[in-house]
Design brief:
single chain, 2 domains, 14 helices, Histone, subunit A, about 10% strand, Rossmann fold
């Protein structure tokens, strides 16, 4: 089966993904799939830098405004919705352009949800290690019950791998061998071309500061005030970056100046975490927008895309 080609454009907040994604989508006659954990919420527009109505008229967008802020939404929901969109685009022979800054959503979609090398759970790990001290053979017996395939591959004395397998099972409810098979199936299903945008740190931080100022000019305070009045229980979505800081101001806990400075600082820290996440992916082709123009980057990405088309799927 031929794998579905996907152009994946990633990078930290405020690096300049939106305009480039629109230009690429128009050139490829692609449709954009958002990979942003906050842009899925209706009414959260300014604070999430959601594409404008005019931009959405230029290029069809998917996975924007799919739930209300008081509805639960997680990575599994995202993967289900994104896979349905990808299936539809494949049927219509339309190129998917996946773009956003939520690395967990991108990895879960393209590499398999709940992949076995996900970060450890310290509490579960501690419980298993304590059990290993008291009765080490009991761990292998437990693994035989929940994951016979892994148990058959591991010696009873290989406590490190046994603990890891049991940790995955307790956290996900699925055997690590099953998750490994799912991951392999996901990797065979899609054929992503990863491209990433960066900027020199000081320039990125300046753009973040300017973006926050622009959000305030566009009416961020009124947006947050409206959301708080509609959702007085303050659901998890309203604890998001850009909303919790302004909410603190509206409740009188911070001055506006302090709230804005906190938002800028937290956004800079978020961008740093995003870059740390993405840099673990050796498949990403990076472009520095501090030294390359948008046209140069766009042409380089198109060359990569056209070149990858010649490779055997």
């Amino acid at each position: 089966m031929e794998r579905q080609r996907i152009l994946v454009l990633i990078g930290p907040t405020a690096v300049g993904k939106t305009e480039l994604s629109l230009a690429l989508a128009e050139e490829l006659q692609a449709e954009i799939i958002s990979a942003d954990s906050m842009q899925v919420y209706r009414g959260m527009d300014i604070g999430t830098a959601k594409p404008s109505p005019e931009q959405r008229r230029r290029v069809p967008h998917h996975l924007l405004d799919v739930v209300d802020p008081d509805e639960s939404f997680n990575v599994a929901d995202y993967v289900d919705m994104a896979e349905a969109v990808l299936c539809d685009l494949k049927a219509r022979q339309v190129v998917p352009l996946l773009t956003g800054g939520t690395g967990l959503y991108i990895d879960a979609l393209l590499d398999g949800f709940l992949f076995p090398d996900a970060p450890a759970d310290p509490q579960i790990r501690r419980e298993l290690e304590e059990q290993a001290v008291q009765d080490p053979l009991s761990l292998h017996r437990e693994l035989e019950e929940v994951d016979p395939l892994s148990a058959s591959r591991l010696h009873p004395n290989d406590l490190r791998r046994i603990i890891r397998a049991l940790e995955v099972y307790r956290r996900t409810g699925e055997a690590i061998s099953t998750l490994q098979q799912k991951r392999e199936q996901h990797q065979r299903r899609y054929r992503p071309l990863y491209v990433g945008l960066t900027r020199d740190r000081q320039e990125l931080y300046q753009r973040i500061n300017e973006r926050v100022d622009l959000m305030l000019e566009q009416g961020l305070i009124a947006e947050v005030s409206s959301l708080l009045s509609r959702y007085p229980e303050q659901p998890t979505a309203l604890q998001a970056l850009g909303y919790k800081e302004i909410a603190s101001y509206l409740r009188g806990e911070l001055s506006l100046e302090s709230a804005v400075e906190l938002l800028k600082r937290d956004t800079r820290r978020y961008a740093k975490r995003q870059l740390s996440w993405f840099r673990r992916n050796a498949r990403i082709h990076w472009f520095n927008r501090s030294t390359l123009s948008e046209d140069q980057v766009r042409q380089a990405i198109m060359d990569l895309w056209n070149g990858s088309a010649a490779n055997t799927p």
